[in-house]
Amino acid sequence: NGVDLDKVRSDKSSIASILKLKYQTKKLLVQVASFREAKDQDTLIRSLCFLPEYFHVLFVGEGKRMKECKNLALQLGVSNRIIFLGSQNNIGAILGISDIVIMSSHWEGFGRSAIEGMALGKPVIASNVAGLSNIVKDAGLLFKAGDENNLAKQILRLSRDKELYNETVRKCLIRAEKYSIQEMIDGYET
After folding, report:
1. Residue 106 in contact with residue 146, Cβ under 8 Å?
2. How far is residue 1's CA from residue 13's CA, in Å, rounded to a whole number?
3. Which among 39, 36, 33 is positioned nearest to 58, based on CA atoms?
4. CB under 8 Å to 153, separation ≥6 — which residues?
5. What is the pLDDT of residues 115-158, one digit of tens each?
6. How far apart are CA 97 and CA 104, in angstroms?
7. When comparing pLDDT for 56 and 16, which is higher?
8. DSSP readout, the chain?
9. How, if at all, do strands 27-32 and 55-60 pair?
């Protein structure tokens, strides 16, 4: 698989512009994934209980588990810190306004959103599972799958340590280049 990094970087969206303005004083965590069992949005929702109020989450995607996730957010009292955006066409624009990209999957085939976030200069925190760990390891940060407390600690660590944040961004940008469409084509041709 390869990602068209130029397209991701050039995405524009009026929704993203509005959200950026509205949440300029907040820390935005973004997860792009369909609402299925494998994607485990629940862990990110539960992690909000361990994070300060200024952390908010944007979920991009749809699916049969969205209602369950909305109910979980209500039960935990964090629904006012979550926006469910549904399907969006310009993912790059939304990832571009994030402070941190989160991938909390139980399992993953490829982790395209992680690469897209990295390409936009966003640090990625992902669950340490096949399909994500090989993309994120030694570039972004990993956490134990399903462990909301560990995820929250990684989010806080990254957001409080500017040097770590900047170094993670640098490594993520470099890693994204390895997954560009051109790199993949060159690899196949070789």
Report:
1. yes
2. 25
3. 33
4. 50, 143
5. 999 999 999 999 999 889 999 999 999 999 999 999 999 999 99
6. 19
7. 56
8. --B-HHHHHH---HHHHHHHHHTTTSEEEEEE--SSGGG-HHHHHHHGGGS-TTEEEEEE---TTHHHHHHHHHHHT-GGGEEEEE--S-HHHHHHT-SEEEE--S--S--HHHHHHHHTT--EEEESSTTTHHHHTTTSEEE-TT-HHHHHHHHHHHHH-HHHHHHHHHHHHHHHHTTBHHHHHHHHH-
9. parallel
The chain-wide mean pLDDT, for the chain, equals 90
Q: What token pair was written down for 59? A: 């979920």
Q: What is the pLDDT of residue 140?
A: 97
Backbone angles phi, psi at 142, to 5 degrees: -115, 150
d(CA 36, CA 108): 11
**CB of 93 closer than 8 Å to CB of 60:** no
pLDDT of residue 93: 86
Checking DSSP bridges between strand 27-32 and strand 100-103, what pairing results, if any? parallel
